[in-house]
What does this fold into?
Amino acid sequence: MLTKNCIHCETPFDASSRRKRTVGGKITECPDCVEEFSLETAVPHAGVLSGDGKGVGCTIVAFNSHKDREQYIKAWRANSGQNVGKKCQLGSGNIAMTGMAFRKVGESGSIGTNHKGRI
It folds into this structure.
């Protein structure tokens, strides 16, 4: 437990709590003040993976809001077949991936090799 005093309201809070990690903000700001004054300024990001043969591609995407991020991740998981066990099949009811504001920050594409650099 990491107890700090908030710089806005002087209230002690646990800086390592789940709620503090969820709402964000500076380490010296309590979760209540972060939510009340809209102090979170971090850009929500998400990393998504695609399996390409022996390799894997990773794309990092930045969003304008947490709502867009959650909507994108939900659609990605449904459309990519993630969390369906060994079946690894695409779902029959794919979710449209439109209406979400995002931009690609980085990409590490698969070059068709395994971890030893062989095809």
Notes: Residues 3-36 form one domain. DSSP finds three helices and five strands in the chain. The chain has two domains: 3-36, 45-108.
